[in-house]
Amino acid sequence: MRYLVISDIHANLEAYDTVMDAARPLGWDRVVLLGDLVGYGADPNLVIERVRALAPHALIRGNHDKVGAGIESADSFNTVARSAIKWTHDTLTPENRAWLASLPAGPRVIDDVFEVCHGTPYDEDAYVFDDLDALRSLHAAKRPLCLFGHTHVQVAYSLTRNQFAVETTTPARPFELALAEGSRYLVNPGSVGQPRDGDPRAGFAIVDAQANTVTIFRVPYPVAEAQARIIAEGLPEILAERLGVGR
Ligand code: ZN
Fold first, then answer.
1. pLDDT of residue 168
2. Span from the CA of 161 to the centroid of ligand 1 (angstroms)
3. d(CA 37, ligand 1 centre) in Å
């Protein structure tokens, strides 16, 4: 079984379509989404419709999905994120808004090997920013492999006996991580629609449950088109600018 794992699309249709095109020849059986389908980007309805058509094996909500759906307030958002999510809420069709509101919270166990969450296995809205957050998540996960999103930073951590390591110190992509028996892993596939690690390319991952590997990929997409859509919809210009630098 090969799982395509994608996270943090953030209504970026150009990035989403590019990732799906890039993933097709790699081969996958099931798709798993880690949340934040909407927020920041210009095409929330089209992204939701594409994702619904995929019939994902698993799909959990992100913080932007909750606020965009109107089931949580935007109090924790900064000014730019708040204005974008208000626009998103008002732009979503009632049907898509209701669908978004129905998404389950993480974490969710996928099989014997891995589970997924939006932020961390212990709190769907918490961030894995540093080694301590990563260690806490590695211990909290119910499966040896946990995939998470939310930070928009593509990274892989491991814990073997008491030895903690960051596996993704090389910037080379694709990067394949072989899962060793007895070790624990915490992997962020990166953000499809708003990378924040200084690399503007869209990120995704493939988990191969037979080969016991996780591979993370980056793929360039038409950033200028996504930027033009943001400007055309009257969203804050900074949201277009940041896509160009991956921050
Ligand atoms: Zn996000």
1. 87
2. 31
3. 8
